Amino acid sequence: METHDVQRSYKKPLGRSIAIGCILFTAILCLALIVLNYYSQRDSLYEHYESEITDLLHYVERHVDGDDLRRCVETLEESEKYRETLRFMDQIMNEFSIHYLYAVKPLNLDGTANVMSVLSAEDDYNRYEDTEGNLYLGWISDDEFDAETVQTFFDIMEQDDVSFFVEVTEWSTDYTGALALRDSKGEAYAVLCVDVDITTLRDELRSQALRNAAVIVCLGVLYTISFLLWTKANITEPVMLLEQGVVDYAGRSHGQRDVEALKFEAPDIKTDNEVESLSRAITQMTENMQDYVSEILSAEEKSRNMKQLADKMSELAIIDSLTGVRNKTAYNREAEKLQQELTESPDLRVGVAMIDLNFLKRINDNFGHEKGDIALKTLTGITCNVFRHSPVFRVGGDEFIVILRGQDLENIDALRADFLSQVSEVYTPEPWKQISAAIGVAFYDRERDSGIEDALKRADQEMYEMKKAMKALREDE
């Protein structure tokens, strides 16, 4: 049988399959690179803007007297500090390449979506020559901002960090960074904003993306041609020769009793790659088969042993060595998994309990760290006994977190009382075992929490208040 006859007998010849696979792979790769390049450039540019906007917002915030500006907002009367702040913001407007720098107070979300102007920076021309469009303290907009943007302002006043959003107007598209302005009591009264015009930026980004796409496609075509020529010389043609040799060997060996006739005569293949190695390996296949099988079984056994060892190490990595409960690494994994469940199951109810051992430092200082470890183990035993249906995590030296679900969640009031009762009832002549602990509990609220960590913060605050009260009571005694 000739080599070309063997190839013709297949529905999917190797050469054609490699060509199709290479073209598809290159096309997908080029598309992925084009998309990745575009978003990488976009994200890099936005990160640059966010960094500059964040620095600028904090810089301006440090020059604002929160209490004075709040009085100005409430009285609608400009103070000397207000005018100084306005001049300072005008200077910033002239020195930096930004579209707008202003502060507003959101008023309502009705049909007008009103906001009130607090501060509005202007460049020298608009401030002192063409002043018709200048905004003054107390000016109330009627159609400058849509309801969605005003809602964003309300949300920002509830946050501590800088927030970013895109605002599209009939004049331009702006990338806005905003930060809540707060008085000395920490109460938000306005939102400080910096706008950067990204209309031209987007056009330039698209042009750059098209140029990069053309380069990527050209490289992809060159790669495909080079790869197909290389595979023809190093893979497909040598494989066809080897296949012909194997077919001839199979025809000769059928019913053959002469051992010498069973010797495989490999074709002359000089590719210096796996095809040449395969040709040599086939000639040794009969003699080496037993060794190959032995090596495969040995490799499988080794793989199973390695997997068992990896599973054991993974289990130990999430267990706190002192108390035997799960550690902070385990909590982080559980919190991530729980957040996914909350996203996928709107009706899921969960809560968290934050527990802290009081006076651990005093025990360590007075009796030694070994006694402090005993106190931690005592608290761990009580916690696990009370919250027996919930996972317990030791996330710090003296801090524990319990993720509450199901039965424990429904009975949390009784369980909290039982926990405090068991802690207070520990009686022993050994003072380090007479522990004291504070506990705080919070439920995940979809209306106010962006994640489980928000509920944990409330539980931590409640625990802190109890801890502070316990310390004050002990000092009185």
Counting DSSP E segments of at least 2 residues, the number of strands comes to 9
Can you identify the CATH class of the largest domain? Alpha Beta
How is the largest sheet built, in terms of strand order?
A: 2-1-5-4-3
What's the architecture of the largest domain in CATH terms? 2-Layer Sandwich
Q: Count up the domains.
A: 3
User: Which percent band covers the strand fraction?
Assistant: 5-15%
Give the C-alpha Rg. Answer: 36 Å
Q: How would the global form be characterised?
A: flat
Query: What low-confidence regions span 5 or more consecutive residues with pLDDT below 50?
Result: 1-7, 288-298
In CATH, the homologous superfamily of the largest domain goes by the name: Reverse transcriptase/Diguanylate cyclase domain
- The arrangement of helices and strands along the chain is HHHHEEHHEEEHHHHEHHEEHHEH
Helix content: 55-70%
Looking at CATH, which topology of the largest domain would you report?
Alpha-Beta Plaits
Structural class: alpha+beta
The chain-level mean pLDDT equals 83
